[in-house]
Design brief:
The protein is built from nine helices and twelve strands. It is α/β, with parallel strands linked by helices and about 260 residues long. The two termini are about 35 Å apart. Bound molecules: adenosine-5'-diphosphate (ADP) and magnesium ion. The site of adenosine-5'-diphosphate (ADP) has 11 residues, from strand 2 and helix 1.
């Protein structure tokens, strides 16, 4: 538990799609090792914010830093210059990303899914990557599935492998965008259990989810977004038990 890296700083970020403002002056400070849950109605900008943290969306105003590095940019004097594609890809190694639809490589085994990225990024040789893959399979409780075809796993198992795959590049921060929304209800718990385990490991986590029980149990910070704006943020107790904003209260009364 180093707790040293994984500080995310979001400063005055706005993002337009045409004339639609999907992010409106969002600022957020996330401490190393903290767990943040982002809540908000559909279309409020949650996915756009996560994508911006990884420079999958280029923001129009403001900037995002991880451990002081500008995401997608480098600083020279008082100017920011966008990084080249290759440099952006290198920077993304610091950010693990888990989507709703896990997108494993279906034609690869579980083990092959877990060793591909660290070898491709020249982080590990094949032997070390395989060793690490088994460690990651222990983390997600699927060591016995190493040689299975990923398409033969249940949705919950595939999502656990997707989490392991994201961890294989040893990211400083992990982003989860509705990681359980595509799952049958009986499979949600096993995926949340893996994320809870990570929460205790010191990796900075940002989780977009409607699982309020998970937020209550695990989140250090809860952020509530409406129309691209953060309308409320605080501890999980503050936001979930004593919401100040009418939109937060309305939202919570619907999902609880
Ligand atoms: P959420 O994840 O909270 O449901 P999103 O971040 O996906 O919301 O979307 C925020 C807003 O931006 C929505 O109005 C959505 O339609 C719009 N939007 C998202 N991505 C695009 C895109 N690539 N092109 C145009 N509009 C987009
Ligand atoms: Mg979304």
């Amino acid at each position: 538990h180093s707790g040293q890296t994984g500080h995310i700083s979001i400063t005055g970020v706005s993002k337009y799609f045409g004339r639609h403002k999907a992010l409106d002056n969002v600022s957020l400070e996330l401490e190393p090792g903290s767990v943040t849950v982002i809540l908000g109605p559909s279309g409020s900008g949650k996915s756009t914010l996560l994508r911006a943290i990884n420079h999958l969306e280029r923001v129009d105003e403001g900037f995002i830093q991880i451990d002081g590095d500008y995401i997608g940019y480098r600083q020279a004097g008082d100017k920011l210059y966008e990084l080249k594609e290759k440099e952006i890809l290198r920077q993304r190694v610091n950010v693990g990303y888990v989507f709703q639809n896990f997108n494993l490589f279906p034609h690869l085994t579980v083990l092959e899914n877990l060793i591909e990225a660290p070898i491709a990024h020249k982080q590990l040789n094949r032997k070390a990557a395989i060793e690490q893959a088994y460690q990651l399979l222990d983390v997600v409780g699927l060591r016995n599935k190493a040689d299975a075809w990923s398409r033969h796993l249940s949705g919950g198992q595939q999502q656990r492998i997707a989490i392991a795959r994201a961890l294989a590049l040893r990211p400083r921060v992990m982003l989860f965008d509705e990681p359980t929304s595509a799952l049958d209800p009986e499979l949600v718990g096993e995926v949340l259990d893996v994320i809870k385990k990570l929460a205790r490991s010191g990796t900075t986590l940002v989780v977009v989810t409607h699982e309020i029980g998970f937020a209550r149990e695990v989140a250090d910070n809860v952020v509530f977004m409406v129309d691209g704006k953060i309308v409320e943020q605080g501890s999980s107790d503050e936001v979930l038990n004593h919401p100040q904003h009418s939109r937060t209260r309305q939202f919570l009364s619907k999902v609880l």
